[in-house]
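The instructor's notes for this session suggest beginning with a concrete chain rather than abstract definitions. Hand out the sequence below and ask the class to guess, before any prediction is shown, which regions might be ordered.
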Amino acid sequence: GLGRLESVSRPGLAVFMPNLAGGTVVLDVGANAECKPNYLVQFAHMGSVYARYLLGRENPRVGLLSIGEEETKGNDLVFEAGDLLRRARHLNFIGNVEGRDIFKGTCDVVVTDGFTGNVLLKTGEGVATLLIDIMRREIRSDPLAVFGTLFMRPALRRLKKHMDWEEHGAAPLLGVDGVCFIGHGSSGPKAFKSALRTIAAFVEQRVNDHIREEIEADHDTAA
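After discussion, reveal the predicted structure:
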C-alpha cells in the first residue's frame, strides 16, 4: 500500500463543499476519527496547498471548525490546535469557524477531526437531498409551479450543477506518498470523468511536492 509523505503524521481525506463563494475544502472527513492537535495543523497545510494549486486560491484562508468563533469555545483539541495554528507562519489562519460558515464561504479551507468532519459531510448531503425532494414535491403539487419551472429551467440546471458532487468526482486522500482519490459508491461515468480530470491536475501541479515542502518549512520554523 501507499505510505505517508515524509514528515506527514496522518493523511487527511478532503472534500469540496459548495457554497456562495465557490466552495471550501474540508478535511479530515473520515480518515482519522481521533486526531492530535498537530494533525490538524498538517491538514491545514495540505488543504491550503490543494486549494492553491487545484482551486486557484492565491492565499487560502484557513478556519478551525468549532462551536463558536471565540477562542474560548471548543474542546481540548480545538484549544490546542488553535494555538498551534495561530503560531504557524506559513498559513493564513483566520480563527475558529462554525459549521454554517462553510456554506457562507467564510474561508477556503476548514480543518477538523475525521469523526466531526464525517458527521458534517453526511449532514450536508442529507440537507441537500431534503431540499431537492421538498422542491420537487411542492412543484408537482401546484400546476402553476409546474408552469413556472419552464421559465426557471436554466437557473435550475445551474443550481443542479453547483450542487452536483459528480462535478468533482472523488475525494483526495492528502498526505500519502502517491495519488489516492476515493470515489462514491454510486459513482457513474460523469463522476469518473471528473475524477480523472482532477487526478491529472493533481499530478501536473505537483501537489505532493508542494505539500512536502510546506510541511517541512513549518517544521523548520517550529524548530
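Then share the key points. The beta strands are 12-17, 24-27, 61-65, 92-97, 109-111, 170-174, 181-183. The helical segments are 37-54, 76-87, 99-104, 114-140, 143-163, 189-204, 207-222.
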